[in-house]
Every structure is written in C-alpha cells, then in structure tokens.
C-alpha cells in the first residue's frame, strides 16, 4: 500500500480502538507508520482523513452484509422468510461490529457542532437507504423511487434503533422472529390504506 492507503488503514484502526474525538493526528501517524506531514499532504487535515476512513468502514460493512445475505437467503424465499433471514444475519454481525456502531453514535452526538460530519453522513444516507431496500428484496421497479427510499428509511430506523439497543443491552435485543412478529402485528393494527393516507403517485 501507498502512504494514502496506509493512512486510511491506520485511521480506521484508531477510530475503532479510540473513537472519533479521542483520535489524534499523532495516533494515526503512529498506527500507519507514516509521517504527520503526510496527513496534510494527502487529506488536508486529520478530520478529513477520519471522515473518509469512517465512510469507508461503513461501506465495507454494508458490502459484507450484502455478500452474506446473497449466500444465506434462498432464492425462492418469500418476503417474510427473507425479512427474518436478513435480520438474523444483521443481528449476528453486531458482536463483531460493535466498535463501528459505537463510533457512529459518537459521531452523531457531535454532528450539530461539526458541519463537515453532517455532510459525510448526508451524502451517504440516501445510498444506505436504497442499499437496505435492495438487501430486503424490495421491488423498486414496481414501487417507484420514492416509496423504495422511504421503505429503506424505515429499515434504516429499525437498524439504527436495534443497534443502539444492542450496545446498551445485548441480551435484550429482539430476535429476527420478534421483529417479524412486531411488524406483522403493528401493520395489522394500522389497517389497509385509506384514500387520504395513500402516498401520492410518482
């Protein structure tokens, strides 16, 4: 690897070990075996480097989940089976990705005072929604882009909320079967669409 890649790798390791706010430029330089000056040369600042390293770590996690799901979910699975299988695989990753979730929540706590962090998350947000919708087998062609993204946003809310619960109380997190049952029960309580509640045509 070159200096740029070494810095990204070192920054990622520091993020997961120390967190966002506690990582210094010197920490990254030592972890990557690259000089402090190289951070400014390749990225302009430590914060830009950390933001790029965090984005890369999140994207890599998403790719790993997608690959695991492609191998684990039967091609003929019905929507309920796919929902349960996908959540089961996601829940299984929490133990190994705890540091990544912890640093994401740490970053969110600072986002109001750090505009560049908002930009990093906002830029990736829509792509994450669409990726989750695809992961859960949402038929984007028939639903259209807006509905597909909103379903992805709903799944994203479930994912982030479940991850937050796992960080606080791993033993109390609902299982994939629990989540499926909750969605079914709550959807039944909501009842069918009414004319006023139906989303506008796209």
UniProtKB/TrEMBL annotation:
Pfam families: TetR_C_6, TetR_N. Residues 1-61 form the HTH tetR-type domain. InterPro entries: BetI_C, Homeodomain-like_sf, HTH-type_TetR-like_transc_reg, HTH_TetR, Tet_transcr_reg_TetR-rel_C_sf. This is TetR/AcrR family transcriptional regulator. Keywords: DNA-binding, Repressor, Transcription, Transcription regulation. The keyword Lipoprotein does not apply. It comes from Actinoallomurus oryzae. Residues 24-43 bind DNA.
